[in-house]
């Protein structure tokens, strides 16, 4: 019953995250004014969350297709491939979180740098490093421990091929998190401010709340504990709580982004204006005869107005402007 509840919880979380991440990725991709290095990195982060959610659904469909949630009885190639895909997507998700931290730290610490040159390095870190470690793990599993569907976690040293890079990325993200907090304190603190002024600290709190889900600091809660330490609690935090992280990231870095909201409002006003103009063409494009009659009538009325009346109307216009 506990495992069914956990599976239901993370299925809801990954489904919600998948839907919001797809919408967020479409928004950042379709609007040209939102194309920049920062949003490109956000899109890759969104894609890593999307692939992670998809790999969870694929793995569950292949390994746990029975109602009793038993794993697959025979170790097929598709079963092992689903586990390999899942492990790669999990590691890529951690490394793109690391890329976000590296990019933000570079923005705050380095005055001038080539974003395009750094971007290809970020691509290599986010997608290349996980593929290298996953390939090494797959080859060693084939030659040394080729039994079962590879989904069980035991005391084998081969798991450290996957765990060591992930733990290293978490540790590096935590160090970057502390360094960025220090940089933000220095940048947000005015030169002469008293202790009673709490505005810098409130702004720092908001920035910190944005950085915590970005850097995945909550993963450090159980990352360095043994696998058999409070397995139920660890499963709830890693599976259920972790499944909603993509949803939180999409909300914070797309839907609550002021630049994205301004672009959406501008596009919405333009679409409404086009709809209004399209619904009333006869009022926007009058016929030539009626236009000529209207112009001639206005000219004839102007010619019949006396000079004194025109002067009085001019004075009234000046008074209304004042």
**Rg of Cα set:** 30 Å
Helix content: over 70%
Structural class: mainly alpha
Strand content: under 5%
Distance separating the two termini: 78 Å
- Secondary structure: number of strands: 0
The overall average pLDDT, rounded, is: 75
- Number of discrete helical segments: 13
| Main sheet characteristics | none
User: What is the approximate shape?
Assistant: globular
Give the H and E element order: HHHHHHHHHHHHH
Q: Which ranges are low-confidence, i.e. pLDDT below 50, for 5 or more consecutive residues?
A: 192-198, 282-322
Explain what this protein looks like in three dimensions.
The chain is an all-alpha fold and 322 residues long. It is 78% helix and 0% strand. The longest helix has 33 residues, at 77-109. The termini are far apart.
Structure characteristics:
322 residues, mainly alpha, 13 helices, 0% strand, globular
Secondary structure layout plus pairing:
Layout: H1 2-30, H2 37-63, H3 77-109, H4 115-144, H5 160-188, H6 199-215, H7 220-223, H8 231-243, H9 245-255, H10 258-279, H11 281-284, H12 288-304, H13 307-321
Helix pairs in contact: 1-2, 1-8, 1-9, 2-3, 2-9, 3-4, 3-5, 5-6
In brief:
This protein has 322 residues and is mainly α. The chain has helices spanning 2-30, 37-63, 77-109, 115-144, 160-188, 199-215, 220-223, 231-243, 245-255, 258-279, 281-284, 288-304, 307-321.
């Amino acid at each position: 019953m506990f495992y069914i509840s956990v599976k239901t919880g993370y299925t809801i979380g990954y489904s919600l995250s998948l839907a919001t991440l797809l919408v967020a990725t479409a928004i950042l991709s379709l609007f040209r004014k939102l194309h920049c290095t920062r949003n490109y990195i956000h899109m890759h982060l969104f894609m890593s969350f999307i692939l992670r959610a998809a790999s969870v659904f694929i793995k569950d469909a292949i390994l746990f297709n029975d109602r009793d949630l038993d794993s697959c009885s025979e170790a097929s190639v598709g079963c092992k491939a689903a586990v390999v895909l899942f492990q790669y997507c999990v590691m890529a998700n951690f490394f793109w979180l690391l890329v976000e931290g590296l990019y933000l730290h570079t923005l705050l610490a380095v005055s001038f740098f080539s974003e395009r040159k750094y971007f290809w390095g970020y691509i290599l870190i986010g997608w290349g490093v996980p593929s290298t470690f996953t390939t090494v793990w797959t080859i060693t599993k084939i030659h040394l421990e080729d039994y079962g569907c590879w989904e069980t976690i035991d005391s084998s040293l081969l798991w450290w091929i996957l765990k060591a890079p992930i733990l290293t990325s978490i540790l590096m993200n935590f160090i970057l998190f502390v360094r960025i907090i220090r940089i933000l304190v220095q940048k947000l603190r005015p030169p002469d401010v008293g202790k009673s002024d709490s505005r810098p600290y409130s702004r720092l709190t908001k920035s910190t709340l944005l950085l915590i889900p970005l850097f995945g600091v909550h993963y450090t809660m159980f990352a360095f504990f043994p696998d058999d330490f409070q397995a139920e609690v660890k499963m709830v935090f890693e599976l259920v709580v972790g499944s909603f992280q993509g949803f939180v990231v999409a909300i914070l870095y797309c839907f609550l982004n002021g630049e994205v909201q301004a672009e959406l409002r501008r596009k919405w006003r333009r679409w409404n204006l086009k709809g209004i103009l399209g619904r009333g063409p006869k009022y926007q494009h009058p016929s030539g005869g009626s236009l000529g009659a209207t112009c001639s009538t206005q000219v004839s009325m102007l010619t019949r107005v006396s000079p004194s009346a025109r002067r009085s109307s001019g004075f009234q216009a000046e008074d209304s402007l004042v």
